[in-house]
Every structure is written in structure tokens, then in C-alpha cells.
Amino acid sequence: MDEDRIICAIDIAERDNAPSVKDWIRITATQMKMKGFTPVLFNGKTEGRTVFAFISNGRWLAVCESCGNCEYVDPINKILFCMKCSNEKSGSARPVKFPKDWKEIEIALLHVEMVVPGNNPIRLPGRVSGGIAEQVVNAFNARPKTPDLRRDWAPKELSENPVVQQSIRVSKFGESANELKMRIRNVKEASRA
Predict the structure, then answer these.
(1) Three-class SS of residue 128?
(2) Per-domain residue ranges for the chain?
(3) How would you classify the pairing of strands 59-63 and 70-72?
(4) Which residues pair with 71 in a beta bridge?
(5) What pTM, to 2 d.p., does this model score?
(6) Rounded to an integer, what distance in angstroms lies between the CA atom of residue 59 and that of residue 109?
(7) Average pLDDT over residues 138-158
(8) Fewer CB atoms inside 10 Å of the end CB: C or N, the chain?
(9) For residue 62, which of 49, 73, 75 has the smallest C-alpha distance?
(10) Strand segments (E) across the chain
(11) Helix axes 177-192, 102-109, angle to 10 degrees
């Protein structure tokens, strides 16, 4: 995959030509409201209970505790706005908690080799090859080269969340970056044997 990275909400904003995550949320919520998919527009505020970020298939996500919908989140712009229920129709975003060592977790997970089905990156018509739109689609469609090793990570606080349990496979919730690196190394070695 071109420019391998963990995809987050700022990448989605960039893909859609929005200058920031908040602007992307505002624009997208407005479009979704006009189509009848989002009940309340984004009011620009961040309040309510904190939700926890996790990585599923190389993408930073968080689960809306109200409706169970997953949305992209960003480790710099730590907010979640649920496009399905508008965070219980409040119109406010919720704060998102990321692990302190999120950069190291990303680096560890980037050692998990991914392939796009058919070994051909998906090319999007009318888009520059290798652009952010292509990277987002390829990250979504990519699968691990080693089946027992995925680009998944979740904090221990989400170990009982059924949406997260269905979305990811981790050997241990709340793995530190060092534990993750060791597990990745061990699985790679075992798969070569």
C-alpha cells in the first residue's frame, strides 16, 4: 500500500477537502441531516462521557455508547460525533481518550504486513494515484498477510464492549506498545516456522 499509515479522522477530512476534523463533522452532519440520516446538526461543542479510541484493521475508531455506531477519530482532534444519532441528539461531540503511547502503538502495528485483495491497490476513478482517498479505501479493504496478525488494538476499558469484540481480534486488551511489538514478532516467527 502506498504511504502505509494508520488511518484516522483527519485523513477522512483531507480526503473530503475539509480543513479540519471539526469542519468535516460540521459539513458531513449538514449533508446527512439534509438526507434525513442525522437527527441533529453538530453544534461545535464537546461534552458528555469520554469514549475510548481503538484500532480496527488499521483505522482509529470509537464506538458511540448511545447507538453502537463506529466513527473515525483522530489522536490530535480527540472528538467523536456520531452521524447516526448525533450523540443522543445532543448535537455535541464527545471527548475521546487515546492511549498515552498511541504513536508507538501505530509504529508497532505498521510492522503488520497488509495486502489489498488481489495484491492490486484499488484505484479510484478521477483521483490521483496514491492520494489520501486511495489510502483510505485501501486501508479499509486491506487484509493481513499473516492471518493470525491484524492491525488491531483496543484499551482494556473496551474488553466488554460487544461492538469492539466483533470488530477486532486482539490477544490482550490494553497491550502496551512494547507488548504489541513482542506479540507481532512472535507471531511472525511462528508463521515462518
Answers:
(1) coil
(2) 1-186
(3) antiparallel
(4) 62
(5) 0.89
(6) 11
(7) 88
(8) C
(9) 73
(10) 51-56, 59-63, 70-72, 79-80, 94-97, 114-115, 143-144
(11) 10
